[in-house]
């Protein structure tokens, strides 16, 4: 196997592992998000309290935990940069789209999830987190009528952000699987063409030798 093929395979591994890691984290949050978004009955106050307590516990994690998380994010980005260095047509199509989705997920994480965790930890849902920046979202249509979201709506926004992030990461996995399938089919077709050409060349050689033997006779 050529060095380029090995580097591409390792870069794919660097993309798939962080993506799967983040999906695992989101799956562990799904039991908390499910009553808020995916049930017909309205969520109870106990559901909101359970999610709020869990998110406060997560946000109070030791600093090493978010550092590891950000290192894993960087590993995924490094994998994309390796694959997109001197890219082929396949890399531009599949890896380029995967990188766009990956960055969309990063924006959702920074804009909604990180901000939401800060608001939930502070418990100040109806005030601005920093000057000029609303806590998680606003409601109201006219300028000056905006109101920060309350506790229940803030938790729902955070749960919806987890769902959006999960869909984006699933899209990354689908694109990487599509790239693997397309490259596999391309290799199979090239191998089939090579075999057909070899068989045709062998048949022509046999015919030429037979014709030469007849002329000698």
Identify the notable features of this structure and list them briefly.
217 residues; 2% strand; two-stranded antiparallel ribbon; mainly alpha
Q: Could you outline the blueprint of secondary structure elements for this entry?
A:
Blueprint: H1 3-37, H2 45-59, H3 64-83, H4 89-122, E1 138-139, E2 147-148, H5 151-216
Antiparallel strand pairs: 1-2
Helix pairs in contact: 1-2, 1-3, 1-5, 2-4, 3-4, 4-5
Describe the structure.
The protein has helices at 3-37, 45-59, 64-83, 89-122, 151-216; strands spanning 138-139, 147-148. A hairpin with a 7-residue loop joins strand 1 and strand 2. The protein is mainly α. It has five helices and two strands, in the order H-H-H-H-E-E-H. It has a two-stranded antiparallel ribbon. Helix 1 (3-37) packs antiparallel against helix 2 and helix 1 runs antiparallel to helix 5 (151-216). Helix content is 78%, strand content 2%.
Computed structural class: mainly alpha
Strand order in the sheet with the most strands: 1-2
**Overall average pLDDT:** 82
Sketch the topology as an H/E string, one letter per element: HHHHEEH
Query: How far apart are the first and last residues' alpha carbons, in Å?
Result: 49 Å
Q: Rg to the nearest angstrom?
A: 27 Å
- Low-pLDDT parts are 128-137
Question: Quick one: biggest sheet?
Answer: 2 strands, antiparallel
Number of helices: 5
Strand portion: under 5%
What is the structure about, briefly put?
By secondary structure, this protein is mostly helical.
